[in-house]
Amino acid sequence: MQAATHARQTAQGATAPGYDLRQIDCDPNFWYPVAWSAKVRPGKAFAARYAGQPIALIRPEHGPVYALEDRCAHRQVPLSKGVVDEAGCIKCCYHGWAFDRRGQCVTVPYLNREDVGRPVRGYPCRERGGLVFIFPGDPALAETVPLPDVAQVGNPEFKTRQFSPRLKCHYTFMHENLMDMNHQFLHRRQMGSITARFLGQDAGENFMEARYSFARKGGNQPLAEALIFGRHHDLEGREQPVEEVVSVRTTYPYQTLKIHDKDGDLVMDLWACYLPLGETQQVTQAFGLLSVKKPKWAFLLDMAWPVLGIFTHRIFEEDREIVEMEQKAWRELGGDHNIEVFPVVRKLRTLLATHGVPNPHATPQG
Known about the structure:
Layout lengths: L1 H10 L12 E2 L6 E5 L7 E7 L2 E7 L6 E4 L13 E2 L5 E2 L6 E2 L5 E3 L14 E2 L1 E4 L2 E4 L23 E6 L2 E2 L3 H9 L8 H4 L1 E11 L3 E12 L4 H7 L14 E8 L2 E8 L4 E12 L5 E11 L4 H36 L9 H13 L1 E2 L8
Antiparallel strand pairs: 1-21, 2-12, 3-4, 4-5, 5-10, 6-7, 7-8, 8-9, 11-12, 13-20, 14-20, 15-16, 16-17, 17-18, 18-19, 19-20
Pfam family, one: Rieske
Protein name: Aromatic ring-hydroxylating dioxygenase subunit alpha
GO molecular function, one term: 2 iron, 2 sulfur cluster binding
């Protein structure tokens, strides 16, 4: 708790030493997705992780999914390797110790006595939008922290795609990459010659938002890009009108990208959470949902859906290569040497530092 307070004071301009942003862990007192619901099958257990914590997700044949520490209290073997019994408890694969959804040991079969086995940690667990969320922080806070809204899942006017790539980088690189739309040069092979136009920003205690439009400077527009951003034409040097507004927002710890057309209607809604992995959180499991508004003739979007998937995958792979290069440079240089000049990203970095928690291995700077 003292470390978290120190990080907040430092980010707000206190004179105390600060921390390298890549050594700031996610605040665990939020709901984090750790698996797709479809991966956790009835009567089965599923192995997941949050940062350095192994998590066992158990879905009984009847009743909701629950989450426990993925270590048996007896010999520390993974509970996710165990068997779900008729009562919905998880039995360790080694000696058959059984644990209920609270993590209490209800059976040590070869002793036939109560109150013998030790409990394991249980995590508050919920499902929304096809994702299983856990609350890895203080369980007493779970009821007061709302689950996030996840794109337009369940809205029949939209078609939604799931994605969950793993990246070899700190989660903060992902927030910076999406927030800073000035990197379109990176995607020139996929999108041709376009440029981002900064329209404005908003900020609050727990969020940072930037708004952009895009202008085509030459070349033909890819079909998939037209589906997402609308039709853009090269006007031979003339200023192009704002046909749509792209809003990128980090509301800690989640990130969204929404596109509204010139009439103000939402046409695309992206939601993402960057789940930290590993003790130093230098690996990220992204969970994302991309919702696209169906046109009047919905079958047109269905026909273009595979093309859109290929296009978004190629764009993401270019981003992946870049953020992993950034992480590699951080390791080789021994810290964060970025010289950031875009005010939006500088404010974003402050937001992430303010709401995160310094890693136990972090070294104060200054």
